[in-house]
Each structure stands twice: as structure tokens, then as C-alpha cells.
Design brief:
Helix content: 10-25%
Radius of gyration: 14 Å
Strand order of the largest sheet: 1-2-3-4-5
Number of strands: 5
CATH superfamily: Gcn5-related N-acetyltransferase (GNAT)
Structural class: alpha+beta
Order of helices and strands: EEHHHEEE
Oligomer: single chain
CATH architecture: 3-Layer(aba) Sandwich
Number of domains: 1
Shape: globular
CATH class: Alpha Beta
Distance between the termini: 20 Å
CATH topology: Aminopeptidase
Number of helices: 3
């Protein structure tokens, strides 16, 4: 896990089962999923299979972002070529607009 100040960035593949469940719960929240390319709820089995698949790819990286030990966001990086990548980010609804991301590490990604 990498950390910067009060932020910690934890690869999805290193997250505990409880953390993975929390990530899925937040991703399936209607406030979050309406912005996703696939806006349908994701089943737990599919979510866990996706996380397992991340172990064998260098093209995608997903990180759970913790602020003072609390899961607040997800950041992902998808390498479309060796020179180009796309990033995605969402802040879970109860922390949107709270300002923590503006003060430190996560602001770099926004």
C-alpha cells in the first residue's frame, strides 16, 4: 500500500474481502454507477472475478483510496497503449463535496 500524508492507495488485489465488498457496494450505488460505461449493478461473483483478473494484467490498475483509514474513493488507470492511459475516479457519495481530496494526494488525479 502506498501512502501520501493522510491518504493511502491500496491496490484492489491487496484489499481484504471486507474492503472488496465495500468497494462493490459503493460502485453499485446509483449515484456512482449512473456515470459508469456499464451502469448496471455488478454481481459480487463478477466483481471478485474482475479483481482476480487484475492480478494477471499490466494494462489496468485499480486502487482503493483511504483517507485517515476510511475508504473514500477509487482511482483506476487503464493503459490503452504503451504511451497513452486513461484514468477514472469516483468519490463515494457520503464523501463527495467534503474537500479532503483537494488538500492532498487524490487531488493530483482530479
Amino acid at each position: 500500500m502506498q501512502s501520501q500524508s493522510n491518504f493511502q492507495f491500496k491496490n484492489y488485489t491487496s484489499c481484504s474481502h471486507d474492503e472488496q465488498s465495500r468497494i462493490l457496494q459503493c460502485r453499485n450505488d446509483t449515484v456512482i454507477r449512473k456515470w459508469m460505461s456499464n451502469s448496471e449493478p455488478i454481481k459480487k461473483e463478477d466483481h471478485l472475478n474482475f479483481i482476480e483478473s487484475l492480478k494477471s494484467t499490466t494494462k489496468q490498475k485499480y486502487y482503493a483510496v483511504f483517507y485517515e483509514g476510511i475508504y473514500i474513493a477509487t482511482i483506476n488507470i487503464h493503459y490503452t497503449t504503451d504511451e497513452i492511459c486513461e484514468r477514472g475516479i469516483y468519490i463515494i457519495p457520503e464523501y463527495q463535496g467534503k474537500g479532503a481530496h483537494k488538500n492532498d494526494g487524490i487531488g493530483f488525479f482530479i
